[in-house]
Write a structure and sequence with these properties.
mainly beta; 6 strands
Amino acid sequence: KRANFSHNEISEMSSLTECWTELITLNLTENKLTDIPACICKLTKLKRLYLNGNKITFEGVPSLIGKLQNLEVFMAARNLLTCIPDSLCKCGSLRQMDLSSNQLVALPASIWELKQLTNLN
């Protein structure tokens, strides 16, 4: 199951998980989000999360994002990230991660815990 909300003016999303428990792909590319809604962390079947072209900051990444154990693709290019939280490195199935065109100054040492990661941009 997929939900594509790309190229809109979305600045906030909440309480979306109650109806979308079977969601596999969520595309929120090119919106106006400043954070990743914490309720996304309840979408335990989520495999692909696209957040490119928003205004997401380090503080906007929920600490529970590591609960997304099935997450394989995390795309967050063109945001305002200065670093990524260790909790993202707990997503053990992560294979692809795009953090290009952010304001990154360092990656956490825990990035090496992502044993399945084959593509880091």
